[in-house]
Design a protein that fits this description.
With 258 residues, the protein is of the alpha/beta class. The chain contains ten helices and seven strands. The chain has a five-stranded parallel beta sheet, with helices on both faces. A two-stranded antiparallel sheet has the order 4-5. The protein is globular and about 50 Å long.
């Protein structure tokens, strides 16, 4: 089955055109260090993005407990093969993501999407279909666009893979998961996505998000994609947030067979 044709113009192209126009009128410096040599991040800041800790889970990139086990990946069936991340959610990377998310800087998604593609370039067992994590319509109206879509589009473009921004739809209430308690976040996420079998069945899918924190969103998205018939699922995020493990770990959820 052929991949859906990737749009020639990136998502949020209106935001991108406006930003390019503003650059003709106003000098734009590096978001992190203020250097005039690069926008949104200068070459030095791109090269020095916060690295992930050496001691981390090889699958989800999360921190390990005292016994060397990953609380996320050992608590339940893992619906995802592996996660790739640019770095840790701190410093310059956190600053760039927040500007992309809350200040309409869609161009950051294109820049960091190219950086993320370099890490995924060795994936030769394709073709893959790149699918962005959708956001609720209320969030899209507030921000003007889904900040993950330009990132995922650029990732697919750089890797030469298919892109489908309509394969998964966000359901449920509009309250962000990060505003909820940990257990509530996990339980609500399980019914937050509807994946289309006609677009995903038999595919190898890369699910893309900006930040991986508790794993609730990416895991729920991966489960929905697998339930729609995807044969393989990987994750790609800009940043992995390091969490201090609470006494209550993510609840065990029913298994979900592909």
């Amino acid at each position: 089955m052929p991949h859906p044709r990737r749009p020639l113009l990136p998502p949020a192209w209106g935001h991108l055109a406006l930003q390019r126009g503003l650059r003709l009128l106003v000098d734009c410096d590096c978001l992190h260090c203020g250097s005039p040599e690069g926008d949104p991040l200068c070459p030095a800041c791109l090269a020095a993005l916060p690295r992930l800790p050496r001691r981390r889970c090889p699958r989800c990139l999360g921190s390990l407990d005292r016994k060397g086990a990953c609380p996320l990946c050992t608590q339940q069936e893992v619906p995802i093969e592996a996660v790739t991340a640019l770095g840790q959610y701190t410093g310059s990377l956190r600053q760039a993501i927040r500007a992309m998310k809350y200040r309409g800087r869609a161009d950051i998604g294109l820049v960091l999407g190219s950086e993320l593609a370099k890490l995924l370039a060795p994936l030769e067992d394709g073709p893959w279909l790149v699918v962005p994590v959708p956001i609720h319509g209320t969030r899209r109206a507030e921000r003007g666009y889904n900040q993950v879509e330009p990132l995922a589009w650029q990732l697919a473009r750089q890797l030469g893979h298919g892109y489908d921004g309509r394969a998964v739809r966000r359901l449920g209430r509009s309250q962000p998961f990060y505003q909820q308690g940990r257990t509530e976040r996990w339980l609500d996420a399980q019914s937050a996505f509807h994946a289309r079998a006609d677009r995903l069945a038999g595919r190898s899918v890369i699910v893309v998000d900006d930040i991986l924190t508790s794993g609730a969103t990416l895991w729920a998205m991966a489960r929905a994609v697998r339930a729609a018939g995807a044969c393989r699922v990987r994750g790609a995020v800009l940043a992995r947030a390091t969490m201090q493990h609470a006494p209550s770990e993510p609840p065990r959820l029913p298994s979900c067979s592909p």
